[in-house]
């Protein structure tokens, strides 16, 4: 891995995008490494939560690496978006392990799209977020037009994308784009604290909850039906047996993750 760092702290993994001289911009190699990193962590049953952040104090991810696609054809552009969504953005959204974006500075273009593909977001008070693609004569291609509207509403998404403007962390919190805002020095501590709470719960149930929540945003899928199915399936897990037994015995559950 040349562009990302992975650190494990007990049941929590921290993925750091490490291209500080490029403000952690996403190029093809970084997207591929992130895919491989997330895939490996998701398969590691000892990892119960993942935090993704950027190296340095300036940027989470300042955007995509424009030099890679400035001369692309129509066909190449479409393939770039499709492959990126498959490898990283859709992949992260549908990961069964919870992923928290710790937005530690600029999250622009592909950077904001990555943050939005995570299950939720926290931000430092110096963070700035936006989708500036129309200034380049293109539109967001890694799910930005869809996820931003889902998270902040159609009108605000239209304005942000059309003006290519940036919003600060407090505005992002007011819009519902991020859950919490803290000083940068406290960001990883906050994210780790939330992740620690997650790790104490049933990883099997959390994976089923992620699937059910995501189903609400999929065309042709009835989210209520997915919820009913996954609720029923939960009754056949060892985690359910442990959780209910621990409750009745008035002790803390020790979930096996099965």
TrEMBL record:
Cross-referenced SUPFAM superfamilies: ClpP/crotonase (SSF52096)
The keyword Lyase belongs to this UniProt entry's keyword annotation: yes
Keyword Lyase: yes
Top-rank taxon: Bacteria
InterPro entries for this protein: ClpP/crotonase-like_dom_sf (IPR029045), Enoyl-CoA_hyd/isom_CS (IPR018376), Enoyl-CoA_hydra/iso (IPR001753), Enoyl-CoA_hydra_C (IPR014748)
Alphabetized UniProt keyword annotations: Lyase
Family that this chain belongs to: Belongs to the enoyl-CoA hydratase/isomerase family.
Annotated protein name in UniProt: Enoyl-CoA hydratase/isomerase family protein
């Amino acid at each position: 891995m040349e562009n990302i760092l992975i650190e494990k702290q007990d049941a929590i993994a921290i993925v750091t995008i490490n291209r500080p001289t490029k403000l952690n911009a996403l190029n093809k190699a970084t997207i591929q490494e992130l895919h491989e990193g997330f895939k490996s962590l998701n398969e590691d049953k000892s990892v119960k939560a993942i935090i993704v952040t950027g190296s340095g104090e300036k940027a989470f991810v300042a955007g995509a690496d424009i030099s890679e696609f400035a001369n692309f054809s129509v066909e190449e552009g479409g393939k770039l978006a499709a492959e990126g969504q498959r490898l990283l953005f859709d992949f992260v959204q549908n990961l069964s392990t919870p992923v928290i974006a710790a937005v530690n500075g600029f999250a622009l273009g592909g950077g904001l799209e990555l943050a939005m593909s995570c299950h939720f977001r926290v931000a430092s008070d110096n963070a700035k977020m936006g989708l500036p693609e129309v200034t380049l004569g293109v539109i967001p291609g890694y799910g930005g037009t869809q996820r931003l509207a889902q998270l902040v509403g159609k009108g605000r998404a239209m304005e942000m994308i059309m003006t290519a403007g940036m919003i600060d962390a407090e505005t992002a919190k007011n819009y519902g784009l991020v859950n919490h805002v803290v000083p940068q020095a406290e960001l990883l501590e906050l994210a780790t604290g939330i992740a620690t709470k997650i790790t104490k719960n049933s990883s099997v149930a959390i994976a089923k909850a992620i699937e059910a929540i995501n189903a609400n945003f999929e065309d042709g899928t009835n989210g209520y039906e997915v919820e009913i199915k996954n609720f029923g399936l939960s009754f056949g897990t060892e985690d359910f047996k442990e959780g209910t037994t621990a409750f009745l015995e008035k002790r803390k559950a020790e979930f096996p993750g099965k």
